[in-house]
């Protein structure tokens, strides 16, 4: 018997891991002669998209036999027909499969939402999802790339509740602006803080390649953001990039390319015939007297839109290689993004590379060096966006022989205008940006429970831009040509030295950290103009006159000490506290303190909680403070500027440029919130609800003062505001089985803003009153909308003359004239056609009442579909473009828009019309700034739709091959009369107003390929 056992053992070794006993063998041998005890059963484990799952565990139910899948997702285990295999893998729902034969083919595991989020990256640490006490949202990197963009900000729209994104424009490379839980400041950026792999980057992620992102965590409440202190008032977005895992080397390739077209929304400008008929309808058409005013003008119909637009091209390619041993793992990626604009003449190109390495030379030491680089370039000879809408269809840039006409051509109706195409023969600009960032991080395991972690980062960025204006061009004629050169570079250093403590004993769990952090910035700029040159020479050496020479240096530094502690008892009761002390160079009171306290209750872990329908039920609550700094550097000091205009005898003089405020301190936001997390029906239903109140104190504002000293404002802490809102994320797997999975996720956010205090000014009787402050809308155009800062109102409240419609008797425009008593209460309301008599009124807020996104995905066997929608309700935008393109005849030197279907123009007495009478050179003021041009911008948009198919090529050593087609921005449902209802962005700010130069959003059609080896 001993010799027989010796013979059998090699046969058993074909299974990976299992156990047996002597009696089992004896019983089996007694009933068989030469047959093996079990048959080898094989199969392949993959995810729902056909991707292979290495390291999955396969067990025979009721025994200790187990095996694991190899790098190609394959396994072999000894079992018999009728046995049940239990298959499990981290991030996937455990599955049971009955053995029906020697091969089981491909077995698909469904993603487990609870497991995928088991470990969540939060501020300076990683926590189990069930132990979180803060409000946050996690976004997988694979969920970002449903939208093709080089900028991560644009990919966030609709992905998380409470996250509002203005997309910017369709111009290649344009980055959107992001607001988390409403505007919390009156000055400076409203963008969240970006943290990439533990390094504080700033208010935008730079040239982070979206394909390198493993996950994003959006931190929203005080429990999550207070650990970032003075930089967390606008929320925090933590980006974690991909890192290698030990095991066989893998290569992943993603490639997609396609074309783009412009979407013009509801703004349609007139063709030649429509414009002629419009002019002919003027009440004073008999006064039109320009030379070409003849019926034949109807046939002059040049399309400036067709001239400027084209089919743009877009391509994005990424290759990553990863692998390693238990001691050394490396992840290397290179990426290329290229897009030519759908408006001719603008090309955007970017290269990225990343090398993340983890090295464990000793059991107690882990070293994590990384290097990241990018190059971004733009070639700009773009056709005029404004001219696409404004230029008259009666005027052509070409003469009858196809040659370009010059400026102020006598053949044009608008003979005072220039032909921008004539200038584009020569004029151009370009810019390049290089960024290099390196990390040398390491962890030292001091004891089993204590670790020292060090993050050290250096970032260098250099940007250059040049422009050439030819002496023959319109802009270059007066100065005989111009050459511009701009250079900027900056360096940022970041270091964080941290002690981490983790311990579990009995029913207790404690995680704590204490750290010192330092971050500084040094930036330099050089700005040079030169004029007077010969055509074709494009370097400053050739200019005859130095028109402008400017340059500057900016520096700041921040250092911090902070602690954080998380405690859990029996997995039921959770508590977290954090404290941070920040010091910044640009304050009078340099140091500020910030804290948070929060708690959670995992109700489903209570012994009395008996239902099996609920997988998770958690109640959360938090309170804490975060801060904000002013946008200005060194506002605490009296500053002087060197001004050549104040010089004497060729020596520049000094003029006071800033009055300092040594008492200036941090803007603080106190946030309280409660939340509820629910998962039910085997995690098929998921619900998260959060309610919050944010109170901002010591608002930083540049307060106007008398200009006797030459300075007209001073930085002060002068006000308070409140934001409160509700966020809901609801998702579920409607169908989930082996062959078909259909999931649907909906998120929504709402935020109500209110100014609760502002600075006071002195009255004639010596008392002080907080009077309303009138501000602009940031559009930078004279005659655009104004807003009002008044206690009790949202900070984005419009303040304009109120449109009262059209007088049905004479077709004149009407506005309201409101009379109020000494307390501001309305006592009378009349209408007037005299614009000067119209009163300024408070006319509602700009920000939406409700916004969010909808995501649905469908998988059937090897076919998958994914769709993303976005929506916004209750927002209002000031459509300034209508002041020019819907001007009732005031502007006769630019084209006009076709009226919307539900609009009509006054023609005769008794008409009830939306538009007043049109006249040539109209002076009725109907197109002056008023609520006539405030429009609801509610919309429902399909952001993306992708259809993919997974092809099985494992026999060719291809782990996964997926081909797909995708469309982006396929439709939008809206009544907004402009180009696009989504709000424009200006840098990191959201404007809530649109100007006459609107770069439309693109519609993209892409063909993609993902391959893994």
UniProtKB/TrEMBL annotation:
Residue ranges constituting the TonB-dependent receptor plug domain according to the UniProt record: 129-236
Membrane topology designation: Multi-pass membrane protein
First-listed, main subcellular location of the protein, grouped into a coarse class: membrane
Boundaries of every TonB-dependent receptor-like beta-barrel domain copy: 384-860
Protein name (record): TonB-dependent receptor
Keywords: Cell outer membrane, Membrane, Receptor, TonB box, Transmembrane, Transmembrane beta strand, Transport
Lineage: superkingdom: Bacteria
Location within or outside the cell: Cell outer membrane
Annotated source species: Pedobacter cryotolerans
């Amino acid at each position: 018997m001993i010799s027989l056992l010796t013979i059998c053992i090699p046969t058993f070794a074909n299974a990976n891991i299992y156990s047996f006993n002597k009696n089992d063998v004896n019983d089996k041998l007694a009933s068989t002669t030469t047959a093996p005890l079990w048959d080898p059963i094989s199969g392949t484990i993959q995810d729902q998209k056909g991707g292979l799952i290495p390291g999955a565990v396969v067990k025979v139910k009721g025994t200790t036999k187990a095996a694991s899948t190899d790098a190609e997702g394959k396994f072999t285990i000894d079992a018999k027909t009728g046995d049940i295999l239990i298959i499990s893998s981290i991030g996937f729902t455990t599955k049971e499969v009955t053995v029906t034969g020697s091969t089981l083919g491909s077995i698909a595991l469904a993603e487990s939402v609870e497991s995928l989020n088991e470990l969540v990256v939060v501020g300076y640490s990683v926590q189990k999802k069930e132990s979180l006490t803060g409000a946050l949202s996690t976004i997988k990197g694979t969920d970002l790339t449903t939208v093709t963009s080089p900028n991560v900000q644009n990919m966030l729209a609709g992905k998380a509740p409470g996250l509002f994104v203005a997309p910017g424009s369709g111009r290649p490379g344009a980055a959107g602006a992001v607001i988390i839980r409403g505007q919390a400041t009156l000055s400076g950026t409203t963008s969240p803080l970006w943290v990439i792999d533990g390094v504080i980057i700033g208010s935008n992620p730079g040239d982070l390649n979206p394909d390198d992102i493993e996950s994003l965590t959006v931190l929203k409440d005080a429990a999550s953001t207070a650990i970032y202190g003075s930089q967390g008032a606008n929320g925090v977005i933590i980006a974690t990039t991909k890192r290698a895992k030990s095991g066989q080397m893998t290569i992943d390739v993603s490639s997609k390319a396609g074309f783009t077209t412009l979407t013009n929304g509801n703004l349609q400008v007139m063709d030649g015939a429509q414009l002629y008929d419009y002019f002919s309808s003027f009440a004073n058409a008999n006064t039109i007297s320009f030379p070409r005013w003849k019926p034949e003008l109807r046939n002059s119909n040049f399309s400036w839109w067709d001239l400027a637009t084209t089919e743009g091209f877009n391509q994005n390619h990424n290759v990553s290689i990863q692998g390693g041993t238990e001691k050394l793992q490396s992840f290397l990626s290179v990426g290329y993004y290229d897009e030519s604009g759908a408006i001719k003449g603008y090309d955007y190109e970017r290269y990225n590379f990343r090398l993340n390495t983890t090295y464990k030379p000793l059991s107690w030491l882990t070293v994590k060096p990384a290097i990241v680089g990018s190059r971004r370039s733009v070639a700009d000879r773009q056709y005029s966006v404004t001219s696409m809408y404004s230029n008259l269809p009666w005027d052509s840039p070409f003469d009858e022989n196809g040659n370009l006409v010059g400026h102020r051509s006598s053949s044009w109706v608008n003979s005072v205008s220039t032909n921008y195409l004539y200038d584009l023969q020569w004029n151009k600009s370009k810019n390049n940006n290089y960024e290099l960032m390196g990390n040398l991080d390491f962890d030292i395991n001091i004891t089993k429970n204590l670790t020292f972690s060090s993050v050290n980062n250096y970032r260098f960025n250099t940007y250059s831009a040049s422009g050439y204006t030819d002496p023959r061009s319109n802009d270059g004629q007066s100065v005989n040509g111009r050459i511009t050169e701009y250079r900027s570079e900056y360096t940022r250093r970041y270091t964080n030295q941290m002690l981490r403590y983790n311990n579990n004993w009995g029913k207790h769990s404690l995680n704590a950290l204490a750290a010192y952090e330092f971050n500084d910035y040094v930036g330099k700029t050089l700005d040079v103009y030169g004029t007077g040159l010969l055509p074709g020479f494009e370097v400053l050496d050739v200019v005859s006159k130095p028109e402008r020479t400017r340059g500057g240096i900016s520096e700041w530094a921040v250092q911090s000490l902070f602690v954080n502690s998380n405690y859990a008892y029996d997995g039921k009761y959770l508590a977290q506290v954090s404290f941070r002390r920040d010091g910044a160079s640009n304050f009078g009171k340099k140091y500020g303190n910030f804290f948070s306290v929060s708690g959670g209750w995992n109700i489903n872990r209570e012994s009395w909680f008996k239902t099996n329908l609920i997988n998770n039920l958690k109640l959360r609550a938090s309170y804490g403070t975060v801060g904000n700094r002013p946008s200005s550097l060194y506002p605490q000091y009296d500053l002087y500027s060197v001004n050549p205009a104040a010089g004497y005898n060729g020596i520049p003089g000094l003029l006071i440029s800033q009055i300092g405020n040594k008492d200036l301190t941090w803007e603080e936001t106190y946030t309280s919130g409660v939340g509820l997390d629910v998962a039910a029906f085997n995690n098929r239903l998921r619900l998260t609800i959060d309610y919050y109140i944010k109170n901002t104190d010591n608002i930083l504002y540049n307060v106007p003062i008398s200009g006797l000293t030459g300075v007209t404002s001073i930085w002060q802490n002068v006000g308070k505001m409140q934001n409160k809102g509700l966020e809901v994320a609801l998702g579920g797997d409607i169908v989930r089985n082996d062959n078909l999975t259909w999931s649907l996720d909906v998120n929504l956010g709402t935020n109500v803003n209110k100014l609760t205090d502002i600075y006071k000014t002195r009255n004639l009787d010596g008392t002080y009153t907080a009077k309303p402050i009138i501000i602009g809308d940031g559009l930078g155009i004279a005659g655009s909308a104004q807003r009002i800062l008044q206690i009790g109102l949202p900070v984005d409240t419009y303040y304009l003359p109120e449109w009262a419609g059209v007088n049905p008797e004479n077709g004149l425009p009407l506005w309201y004239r409101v009379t109020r008593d000494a307390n501001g209460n309305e006592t009378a309301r009349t209408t007037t056609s005299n614009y000067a008599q119209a009163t300024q009124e408070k006319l509602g807020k700009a920000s939406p009442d409700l916004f969010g996104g909808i995501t649905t995905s469908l998988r059937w066997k090897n076919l998958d579909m994914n769709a993303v929608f976005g929506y916004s309700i209750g927002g209002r935008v000031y459509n300034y473009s209508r002041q020019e393109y819907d001007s009732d005849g005031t502007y006769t030197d630019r084209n006009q828009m076709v009226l919307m279907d539900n609009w009509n123009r006054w023609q005769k007495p008794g008409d009830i019309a939306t538009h007043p009478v049109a006249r040539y050179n109209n002076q009725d003021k109907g197109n002056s700034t008023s609520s006539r041009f405030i429009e609801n911008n509610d919309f429902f948009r399909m952001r993306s739709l992708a259809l993919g198919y997974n092809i099985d090529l494992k026999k060719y050593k291809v782990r996964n091959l997926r081909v797909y087609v995708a469309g982006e921005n396929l439709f939008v449902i809206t009544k907004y009369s402009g180009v696009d209802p989504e709000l424009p962005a200006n840098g990191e700010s959201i404007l809530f107003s649109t100007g006459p130069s609107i770069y439309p959003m693109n519609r993209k059609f892409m063909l993609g390929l993902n391959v893994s080896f």
